[in-house]
Automatic annotation (TrEMBL):
It comes from Bacillus chungangensis. Gene3D superfamilies: 3.30.230.10, GHMP kinase, C-terminal domain. One of its GO terms (molecular function) is 4-(cytidine 5'-diphospho)-2-C-methyl-D-erythritol kinase activity. This is 4-diphosphocytidyl-2-C-methyl-D-erythritol kinase. Residues 197-274 form the GHMP kinase C-terminal domain. The lineage of its organism: Bacteria, Bacillati, Bacillota, Bacilli, Bacillales.
Length: 289
């Protein structure tokens, strides 16, 4: 038997870092939403009792370091499953890009194995388990749009933004989230207005959403990689309604309301950047099933 699951990327409409906690994690406030750029995960039963990772991408580890492997191992241990599984990852989300590709693969693996192994666990339980693997996994288990607080694992559902296009441009560099947090100086942060972003979503006010996008990590990544600023400038110049770096970067996204502008912005960016995507918002969590 096999199960197919979709593992969509996320973008941060806003990302704030409040303070460093005694346990070493940063307390954050993030408004995140899933977009229609997704890895495809196939889970197939194996005759032998082991976890096997298959992926054609040379950037994805094929052993215990893979977040999908960690998800399967966690479920096996917690629920005493003595079955094997082959996890095939068809990688479409750029790696180390600020789009939570690895976390989404882990979340999709939890959702898929819940079916394959007939565990019947609620999403809230899968999200709780996911938080043991990584801070973004809990959000990815639910998908849709949410406010993530704590170290990112406390999820409060929010209405999804009004439908629009999302243009993504990733320069040819990978960014380590840990490195960006190391460089972050808390007293210099430009804090986004999370409350205003949440209100804008409830009001379904596209213009207001655009005026409140903000990312506290942007300053750090822009300082280290000037090419990210260049992409931001180009995206604005070509006419995106809002432009922001996602997560710790380096991917920059633009929100675009009118389809008539999408091709122009896409083509303009292709001149600067190898990896450019034009996708839709994914809307609510039903899209994951
Ligand atoms: P986030 O936005 O959550 O910080 P990211 O998008 O910046 O994440 P990922 O694409 O998740 O970063 O990859 C970060 C690192 O995780 C990679 O360098 C890779 O070695 C490792 N990794 C482990 N499992 C996976 C996976 N399934 N897909 C991609 N990378 C993975």
């Amino acid at each position: 038997m096999t199960v197919l699951v979709k593992a969509p990327a996320k973008i941060n409409l806003s990302l704030d870092v409040l303070y460093k906690r005694p346990d070493g994690y940063h307390e954050v406030e993030m408004v995140m939403t899933t977009i229609d750029l997704a890895d495809r995960i196939e889970l197939a039963e194996l005759p032998e009792n082991r976890i096997k990772i298959l992926s054609q991408s040379r950037y994805v580890p094929d052993d215990h370091r893979n977040l999908a492997f960690k998800a399967a191992k966690l479920l096996k241990e917690k629920y005493h499953i003595s079955k094997g599984v082959a996890i095939s990852i068809d990688k479409m989300i750029p790696v180390a890009a600020g789009l939570a590709g690895g976390s989404s693969d882990a979340a999709a693996t939890l959702r898929g194995l819940n079916k394959l192994w007939n565990l019947n666990l609620p999403l809230s339980k899968l999200a709780e388990l996911g938080a043991e693997i990584g801070s973004d996994v809990a959000f990815c288990v639910h998908g849709g749009t949410a406010l993530a607080t704590g170290r990112g694992e406390i999820i409060t559902k929010l209405p999804s933004p009004p439908n629009c296009w999302v243009i993504l441009a990733k320069p040819a560099i990978g960014v380590s989230t840990a490195d960006i947090y190391k460089q972050l100086q808390l007293h210099t942060i430009d804090h986004p207005d999370t409350k205003a972003m949440v209100e804008s979503l409830y009001q379904q006010d596209f213009k207001k959403i655009c005026s409140h996008v903000g990312n506290a990590l942007e300053m750090v990544t822009l300082g280290m990689y000037p090419q990210v600023q260049q992409i931001k400038d180009q995206m604005k110049r070509f006419g995106a309604d809002a432009v922001l770096m996602s997560g710790s970067g380096p991917t920059v996204f633009g929100l675009v309301q009118y389809e008539s502008r999408v091709q122009r912005i896409y083509n303009g960016l292709r001149g600067f950047c190898e990896q450019v995507y034009a996708v839709r918002m994914l809307g609510d969590e039903k899209a994951l099933v």
